[in-house]
Amino acid sequence: MRPGSATLLLSPTSASTPGMPRPLIFASASAVEEAFYSALAHADAAGVMALWADDEEVVCIHPGGPRLTGLHAVRQSYEAILANGPLNIRIRDVQVFESATLAVHSLVEQLTVTGPRGTRLVNVLATNVYVKGSAGWQLLVHHAAPGAQAERPVHDTPPGKLH
């Protein structure tokens, strides 16, 4: 992430639901992204879910998994994933498109995975889509797919391949 990108406004409690934390209001899509990966690193499913847009049309696709639509399905998936502990993810090669109310971040998530074959690094290609509304910037879509171990340079497209 870029230095200084984690600008956010916190409001500790909600007037409408006493004792319940209010959603965070983020000043930038990059701040939401930083909070997202921090919550994953701390196995904080509630923290992950606090970042999503309050919209039943949110979409999440985990590597090799089905398309999950709606907050309930997304919440269940993160609770199951993070029940196994924190995720060790290093973010690299972030490409950003941003307008006044929409931001698209394409990046590589480099996960450290320990399994029967020992510890290894796994590349996951991810696209995060953020929207800005009255509640600030929020996550609308997270789409992650297995990536190749050796990535091609960013603008290197093989001949005859449209996308």
Essential attributes:
Nuclear Transport Factor 2, Chain: A; 6-stranded mixed beta sheet; disordered N terminus; 163 residues; 37% strand; globular
Explain what you see.
- This protein is α+β, with helices and mostly antiparallel strands.
- It contains three helices and eight strands; from the N terminus they run E-E-H-H-E-E-H-E-E-E-E.
- The protein has helices at about 30-40, 45-50, 70-80; strands at about 10, 25, 60, 65-70, 90-100, 100-115, 120-135, 135-145.
- The strands form two sheets. The protein has a six-stranded mixed β-sheet.
- The radius of gyration is 17 Å and the shape is globular.
- The two termini are about 25 Å apart.
How does the SSE layout of this entry go?
Elements: E1 8-9, E2 25-26, H1 29-41, H2 45-49, E3 59-61, E4 67-69, H3 71-82, E5 89-98, E6 102-115, E7 118-133, E8 136-146
Parallel strand pairs: 3-8
Antiparallel strand pairs: 1-2, 3-4, 5-6, 6-7, 7-8
Give a summary of the structure in a few sentences.
This protein is an alpha+beta fold. The protein is about 20% helix and about 35% strand.
Strands of the largest sheet, in order across it?
A: 4-3-8-7-6-5
Give the domain tally: 1
Proportion in helices: 10-25%
Query: What is the average per-residue confidence, as pLDDT, rounded to a whole number?
Result: 83
Could you give the count of β-strands? 8
Biggest sheet: strands, sense, closure? Answer: 6 strands, mixed
**Helical run tally:** 3
Distance between the termini: 26 Å
Radius of gyration based on Cα positions: 17 Å
Low-confidence stretches: 1-20
Mass-distribution shape = globular
H/E element order: EEHHEEHEEEE
Named CATH topology: Nuclear Transport Factor 2, Chain: A
CATH architecture: Roll
Helix vs. strand class: alpha+beta
Q: Could you name the CATH class? A: Alpha Beta
**Percent of residues in beta strands?**
35-45%
